[in-house]
Specification:
204 residues; 5-stranded parallel β-sheet; 7 strands
């Protein structure tokens, strides 16, 4: 499956998150960072952090099932996996109304794929696998976050930003290209032993 990557401007716009677990909580945090007005629908026993955030007025939490009226306002809808009939209902609604709907880690039940985001040291990277392996993306995010947490990288970006602001347009491209000459990211890939031996993945 191939996707066309875009960035949504959600500042001041409504977003709906259906689910009450850790995955829903992580998505709520990212939506709040983007400036969205977030409503969460959660049945059962939602994560305590969701209740805490709602009590603090950061977002709205309803502990009940989805209603048709809940779909009037949102620009985008995220759904925790686990309730396939609900995901299929929202996929049909999103396709019909041309609104973006994403069931997390289930691209076949989504109209778009939400990439994993690395935000550290002043850097933001979005990475995706087309839904092939969310676990691999989580590991890449962890490794990149550790790499770019080096305090020198934050100072590096700050130095370059300051330099760029002082340069006239006619000199900016040449001087910035010269400034970043010599910067590089050295990395290597490491795979589990079963893969290197050409074996089947372990059961657990």
């Amino acid at each position: 499956m191939r996707y066309f990557p875009i960035e949504l401007d959600l500042a001041g716009r409504d977003a709906l998150v259906v689910g009450g677990g850790r995955e829903a909580l992580a998505k709520v945090e990212r939506l709040l960072e983007a400036g969205a007005r977030v409503t969460v629908l959660a049945t059962g026993d939602p994560d305590s952090a969701l209740r805490t955030g709602a009590r603090a007025g950061r977002f709205t939490l309803h502990e009940r099932e989805l209603r048709d009226s809940d779909l009037e306002a949102p620009w985008v809808v995220f759904v925790e996996p686990g309730d396939e009939p609900l995901s299929r209902r929202l996929l049909e609604w999103g396709t019909r109304t041309r609104r973006p709907v994403c069931t997390l880690d289930r691209p076949e039940l989504s109209t778009f794929a939400n990439p994993t985001v690395v935000g550290v040291g002043g850097l933001t990277l979005a990475i995706g696998s087309g839904g092939a392996s969310p676990g691999t993306l989580r590991r890449i995010r962890e490794d990149l976050s550790a790499l770019f947490s080096d305090e020198r990288f934050t100072r590096w970006l700050t130095t370059l930003a300051t330099l760029r602001e002082t340069l006239p347009r006619g000199e900016r491209a040449r001087r910035m290209a010269a400034a970043v000459r010599g910067f590089a990211v050295d990395a290597k890939l490491r795979f589990p032993a079963w893969f290197e031996r050409g074996e089947e993945p372990p059961d657990a």
